Every structure is written in C-alpha cells, then in structure tokens.
C-alpha cells in the first residue's frame, strides 16, 4: 500500500492536562507500535521540561515546517512551536491559554487542508476553559465541522472489538430523547456507511440500529419512539441500499455473538454507545470524526487533570489514535474518494 508522505499533526490539547505526557510517551512507543511520523503543535520548552520532570528520555526538537518532521522523528519529537501566554501548571486550568488551544486546532486543520499534514490527531480539551475564549461548540467534533466548511459530522468510536456511533452526542439525556428525529438517524447512517466504505475498506457495511427504549419499546408498550422514530429510519436506510437492522434491544446488542453480526452500532444517545465500547477496552478506544474532508482521530478520554504531571497517564488510546490516523491516511492515498 502506498504510504502518505506527509506526517500527522497532533494538537496541544489542554496544556494543564495529560496531553503533553501521553504525547511524549507515544513518541517513545514509535518503534514498538510502530507509529507513522508525527509532529505536535506545542511549546518545545514546555515539553522538554515536562519530559525531564517525568523522567522520560524524550529529546524535543523544534521544527520550522512540517516537512522537517519525518527526518527528525526517528531521533527526536518534532514540535512546530506555538506560544502560550501563561506558564502551565499541571492540573491547574488557566483560561488565558484557551485562545492558543483553539488556535492550534485551527492551525492543524489548515495544515491538513494544505496537504502539509496527512491527518489531525487532537489531544483532549477542557471545554469549560475554552468557552471563556469564545468557543461556542459542544466539542471538537462540531468545531472541526465548522472549520471544514459546515459539513455534517458524525462521531464514531472505534475499539478493537466494537465500533459505535451516537446519533445524539453531547446533550443532556432529556434533551437527546426529545430531539431525536428519524432524519438524524438516517443522516448518521448514511455518513457512517460511506465512512466505513472509504476509510475502512468495508464494501457492504452492516449497521445495527439500537432502539431508544428498553427492549426497543416492546411493540410500543415501553414508549412509542422506536415505532415512530427509529423503525422508519431503518426502513429509509434499507431503501437507500444500506444493510441496516433494527431497532434492536440495546441490552442484547453488545455481547460477542451479537457483535459478530454487524460492523457498527448506531446508538441513540451518548452513553448508550460509549459505555459498551469503554467497557470492552477502555484503554484503546479511538474517536474518529466521519463526514469531514480530512482525517481526524483522538484518544477516547478526557484531560485527566487529577493525574496530570504525575507520570502515570496511560498513552494507549493516543497511540491507537495515531496508528489509526496513519492507516486511514495511507488508505486515502491508495484509493482516493470518487468525485
């Protein structure tokens, strides 16, 4: 398979969180994994100090352009410098650094759009600190969609044994149920099927559609949402030629035999999707945004402020996100999307 020549770009994420630590540890795992070349948008001096404080043997090298990253990557962590106005204290949030965090996301997307990076891998952000800087999005997914020109994004979580897509994402459960629409399920299903075909080389994706209510409503005796909202979406997806099954009882969808019958589970709300994925393999889950004209992955966890700076953060999810981004970038180079 032809390899993408451009390196991956990692964002700084929340500076007070574990993003810097797991980035350093991911570089140390580059040969064991192995990982494609990457560089990070960060402050080189910050990462050097962090490596020393954690006892990590990671040489940090500032680069002037992404094109320098591949040659440096085998012997040092390439860092494309950004500026943080305030010093970083692990575990202590500082809203003054929020504009730089947002700017790093925007810069990473621009580098991919220019062909100077192959994919974006985002470190976790602390959203409440970003709101003070004018960030008005529920999370990375929605902001990336805006940067991509206003496309419809779909969040898919990928683990070694399961792929899941929540139709409603970062909203209160009461609101998620009230806002669930047939059209949203169909849109998520279409984008998911296309993403699995293009980026995962699954010619005929099999979609399992979860019911909203216990036992998928039991024919309306436990709520009529599955009859009136979910079932029509399944019928519309089938009419489009997509292999969709459901609505299925959520409590029997995720055991091993059931998972063997589908390629992705479409779930009606956030925790319905993420609980089974994180239960099966908490450390290696990856968040990927489908529907974008570029590749974006991230670790499937938060900033972990409570353990920041202690040297105990597990980099497995970030390593998996980097590896998956590299695989998808290679696949897109080998088989570009049709017009």
Ordered list of secondary-structure elements with their pairings:
Layout: E1 8-10, H1 19-28, E2 38-42, H2 44-54, E3 60-62, H3 69-72, E4 77-81, H4 98-113, E5 120-121, H5 127-131, H6 140-147, E6 154-158, E7 163-166, H7 173-179, H8 182-200, E8 206-210, H9 225-239, E9 243-248, H10 256-259, E10 264-267, H11 270-280, E11 286-290, E12 296-299, H12 316-334
Parallel strand pairs: 1-2, 1-5, 2-4, 3-4, 5-12, 7-10, 8-9, 8-10
Antiparallel strand pairs: 6-7, 6-11, 11-12
Helix pairs in contact: 8-9
Structural features, described:
The protein is of the alpha/beta class and 339 residues long. The chain has two domains: 201 residues, Isopropylmalate Dehydrogenase (3-Layer(aba) Sandwich), CATH 3.40.718; 120 residues, Isopropylmalate Dehydrogenase. It has twelve helices and twelve strands. It has a twelve-stranded mixed sheet with strand order 3-4-2-1-5-12-11-6-7-10-8-9, with helices on both faces. It is globular and about 60 Å long.
Helix coverage percent of residues? 25-40%
Q: Which class of secondary structure composition applies to the elements?
A: alpha/beta
The CATH H-level homologous superfamily of the largest domain: Isopropylmalate Dehydrogenase
Biggest sheet character:
12 strands, mixed
Count, helices: 12
Task: Report the portion of residues in β strands.
Answer: 15-25%
Measured distance between first and last alpha carbons: 22 Å
CATH class of the largest domain: Alpha Beta
CATH topology of the largest domain: Isopropylmalate Dehydrogenase
Shape: globular
Number of domains: 2
Query: What is the multimeric organization of the chains shown?
Result: single chain
The largest beta-sheet arranges its strands as: 3-4-2-1-5-12-11-6-7-10-8-9
């Amino acid at each position: 398979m032809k390899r993408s020549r451009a390196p991956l770009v990692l964002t700084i994420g929340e500076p007070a969180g574990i993003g810097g630590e797991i980035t350093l540890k991911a570089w140390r795992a580059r040969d064991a994994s192995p990982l494609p070349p990457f560089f990070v948008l960060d402050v080189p001096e910050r990462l050097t100090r962090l490596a020393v404080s954690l006892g990590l043997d990671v040489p940090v090298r500032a680069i002037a352009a992404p094109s320098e990253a591949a040659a440096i990557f085998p012997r040092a962590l390439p860092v494309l410098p950004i500026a943080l106005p305030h010093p970083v204290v692990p575990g202590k949030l500082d809203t003054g650094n929020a504009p730089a965090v947002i700017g790093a996301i925007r810069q990473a997307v621009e580098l991919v759009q220019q062909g100077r990076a192959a994919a974006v891998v985002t470190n976790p952000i602390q959203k409440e600190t970003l709101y003070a800087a004018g960030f008005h999005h529920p999370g990375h997914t929605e902001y990336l969609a805006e940067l991509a020109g206003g496309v419809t994004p779909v969040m898919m979580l990928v683990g070694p044994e399961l792929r899941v897509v929540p139709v409603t994402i970062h909203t209160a459960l009461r609101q998620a149920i009230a806002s669930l629409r047939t059209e949203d399920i169909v849109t998520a299903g279409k984008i998911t099927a296309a993403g699995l075909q293009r980026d995962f080389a699954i010619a005929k994706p099999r979609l399992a559609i979860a019911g909203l209510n216990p036992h998928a409503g039991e024919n309306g005796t436990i709520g009529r949402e599955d009859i009136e909202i979910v079932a029509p979406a399944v019928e519309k997806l089938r009419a489009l030629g997509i292999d969709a099954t459901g609505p299925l009882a959520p409590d029997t969808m995720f055991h091993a035999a059931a998972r063997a019958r589908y390629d992705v589970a479409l779930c009606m709300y956030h925790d319905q999707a993420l609980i089974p994925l994180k239960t099966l393999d908490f450390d290696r889950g990856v968040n990927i945004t489908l529907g974008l004209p570029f590749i974006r992955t991230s670790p499937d966890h938060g900033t972990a402020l409570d353990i920041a700076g202690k040297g105990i953060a597990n980099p497995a999810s970030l390593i998996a996100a980097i590896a998956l981004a590299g695989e998808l970038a290679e696949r897109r180079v080998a088989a570009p999307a049709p017009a």
